[in-house]
């Protein structure tokens, strides 16, 4: 069962093509580095894809790259985000797009998010966007000085997927700025004409003048081109539910001439919330995955933190929560290493393991209830009585869905050096050897002094642990 934002209820997944799951995910606008709130959306979409693959479906997943057309206010006025970034940094828009696309791909790899079938870039589909707009323009659009606009009154149930007042004329909270001549405030740009006397780095000739496509048009065209209409599932952040996705649905309805076309199921992950306000771009501590790594937190700890909260709930970010997730991950990795030693798995027949698998399947089938599914993993890792080869079978199945890489990660992998560490690893090892010599000579005062010195340098000594030491990671907000 999956929660469909369009119907506002749980629905069984019944693929349009038997045995096949086709998913489109709204990708990044590559004008800046992605923050961890952005990356939560891709962890969610990856988990959805993993669950469907686990269930036996042939998966075709598409994540687009928006490298043109997205305006600074997410509506129909203002500057293009990439043009603005390029002008600010005195670089070409193509350099900006490639740099931040590469940064996004780096974060995708670090979070063990699987490569989709396609990474379409909006700029590659502009001719198709012009064809799409031409087909719907006569019945559904009108021309203003600023470009071609979609008349939302021409399609049925416009905005049904939205839940806020963002679509109404009465709302004082509307994110849609009024443009002179629009028939309804919710009407949106299909094609934005370059203003007289202005020039853009990215612009194309069209029947409505030289300019660039509207942001909403891009996803309609790329999803139709790569997945066909209709397709199974469309995912995105919850903010897309209010403006972007209603507009996308309207375009699809206009193009196909029907009341219901595009994705059958629309799924939205909720926000990541950082309540201190200390992680905004303006504070200088932009909450990127790189910042987490720089402070010594492995990306898989962030992935686990995402999985510990249901995708439709707010996810509270704090360093305390992240450290707790890292601690839990370390325990998981240590326990998984004992199971993975057997190398060979066998079919599951043990009664306790069978129940654990059933509970796991029930949880992930209930709208991706990963917090509950993780409890089955914890029980598996704590289990002592079942045959190890069968436990390995279950571990690999569960870990595939969670995407944590438990059978390949090591405790040392999770020991990332913080960038502000005042001591290097060689010095730590030398101090530990000196401390071991002192303990062997029963000079416990010297041994304690070395421990305190290491602790002052941000190193926790762990007697009896095979890796001997770890970084003492701060949970204080910068």
Note down, in words, how this protein is organized.
- It is a single chain.
- The protein has 478 residues and is α/β, with parallel strands linked by helices.
- Helix content is 41%, strand content 12%.
- The protein is built from 14 helices and 14 strands.
- The chain has helices at 36-54, 81-89, 93-110, 126-140, 215-227, 244-256, 289-294, 299-307, 319-340, 351-365, 370-382, 388-402, 425-440, 444-456; strands at residues 2-4, 9-11, 20-25, 58-63, 141-144, 147-150, 188-193, 211-213, 231-237, 263-269, 272-273, 315-316, 459-461, 469-471.
- The strands form five sheets. It has a four-stranded parallel beta sheet with strand order 4-3-9-10.
- α6 links the parallel β9 (231-237) and β10.
- The longest helix is centred in the last third of the chain and has 22 residues, at 319-340.
- The protein is globular, with a radius of gyration of 26 Å.
- The two termini are 41 Å apart.
- The relative contact order is 0.11.
- Mean pLDDT is 90; it is low at 165-175.
